[in-house]
Write a structure and sequence with these properties.
The protein is an alpha/beta fold. It has 16 helices and 17 strands. The strands form five sheets. The chain has an eight-stranded parallel sheet with strand order 9-2-1-17-16-13-12-11, covered by helices on one side.
Length: 407
């Protein structure tokens, strides 16, 4: 009860104008890591984690809050960020998109407002959506159509929205039905009024929480330049807001799926580019094989030569199954380390229950993902064998618990 009360108090504190910086003594991981631990088969890993003293758990940069703590809180909201910090995430993520008036805001995608906010419940704002809602029909196999973007709204309009759990009822006949699509393994319990944030607001909050920051420059879904706002303006503005807030470069890990963004930071903002993260989506290329370098978009040596220091692929690209049927490092992981690249992996606890193989994030090792305990097995392999420097998680308590107990 004390643990749950503590989390409740810090979330209530998040509703006030100021939040005190969290101390290590306030970090709480709750019951989920212990639930996952119970699912592990008897092993050295289970013995080591079982012997962990909860009172020793402290904040760690190994634990990265992916959009905050969206397993149970609306992503990229103040409430989600505070929960992630309370779970010991040493780094928090604001995915950065821009509004119609070119203000930077925290959203996973420029065009996800219809699934992550209550915009469809606000007629005046819903009418501004790029694609207004069109009803679906499950009997005819017709999906509902709608697309609402940050660039459809001004900053003032954006801040009128509330965040909700990401999801949609794809065959909905009404806007209300469309909004009722939260996956069964998540919850709407904490989603009544998620507070949306600008990029600047996230920086101020993260400073008060005493965490480092990893903003992702989201790939625009509008033609650039946007009303004269160029990609270079966009990349520069992101860095400028950290400089204006007095955040030192060592506390910022800017990310992008566009290598050109990372190269721009290297050339024009070399101090902040030292920890720039190249997010690798090579898996979208036809024929990509994480164990066959000839299918990769770039060799690891090429990336290193271009100034990249940190690469971040999805979990499954770093692992494979050995001939003996056990976890093994992928060629991708081996080559990245050989080139001197540091690695961050994404995203743990985003797949729901693992008894169905884990979906996208576990696709290269789905035969081994038979229960939720495999979350810890994979996490341990990534940390000890692959040597990742951090892991994004939708529930940072798990990565915090692991890193404290093992390292």
């Amino acid at each position: 009860m004390k643990r749950l009360l503590g989390l409740g108090l810090i979330l209530l504190a998040g509703c006030s104008a100021k939040q005190p910086k969290l101390s290590n003594e306030e970090v709480q991981v709750g019951v989920r890591p212990y639930y996952l631990l119970e699912q592990l088969p008897e092993s050295e890993l289970k013995s080591r984690l079982s012997a962990c003293e909860a009172s020793s758990i402290k904040k760690t940069d190994f634990s990265i809050g992916h959009r905050g703590a969206p397993l149970q809180f609306p992503e990229h909201t103040k409430e989600s960020y505070i929960a992630a910090a309370k779970m010991g995430a040493g780094i928090l993520e604001c995915d950065v998109a821009f509004t119609k008036d070119e203000a930077l805001v925290c959203r996973h995608s420029q065009c996800d407002l219809h699934t992550t906010t209550n915009i469809l419940a606000m007629p005046e704002l819903a009418n501004k959506c790029r694609i207004p809602f069109q009803a679906g029909d499950i009997n005819k196999g017709i999906k509902a159509q709608v697309q609402c973007c940050t660039s459809d709204l001004t900053l003032d309009e954006f801040l009128q929205l509330n965040g909700k759990m990401d999801g949609a009822n794809e065959f909905a006949r009404t806007k209300q039905e469309y909004m009722q699509g939260t996956p069964k393994w998540r919850t709407d319990l904490y989603a009544a009024s998620g507070t949306l944030m600008t990029h600047k607001q996230s920086i101020a909050l993260f400073k008060r929480l005493g965490v480092k920051m990893t903003p992702e420059l989201k790939t625009p879904q509008v033609e650039m330049p946007f009303n004269g706002f160029t990609q270079q303006d966009y990349a520069t503005k992101l860095i400028a807001e950290y400089k204006q807030a007095g955040v030192p470069a060592k506390d910022v890990f800017p990310q992008s799926f566009l290598l050109s963004d990372v190269q721009y930071w290297i050339k024009h903002h070399p101090d902040y580019a030292q920890q720039a993260v190249y997010l690798d989506d090579s898996y979208d290329i036809a024929g990509f094989d994480h164990n066959d370098p000839s299918t990769w978009q770039h060799t690891m040596a090429e990336l290193k030569a271009k100034g990249v220091n940190i690469i971040a692929p999805p979990l499954w690209m770093l692992v494979t199954i050995s001939e003996e049927g056990t976890l093994a490092q992928s060629t991708y992981a081996i080559e990245a380390k050989k080139a001197g690249l540091k690695i961050i992996a994404w995203s743990l606890e985003r797949s729901g229950p693992l008894n169905n193989g884990g979906g996208f994030y576990y696709q290269s090792v789905k035969e081994l993902a038979k229960d939720d305990g495999f979350t810890l097995t994979l996490l341990d392999f990534l940390a000890q064998d692959v040597g990742v420097i951090g892991v994004f998680s939708d529930w940072p308590a798990t990565t915090t618990f692991y890193d404290n107990c093992i390292n």
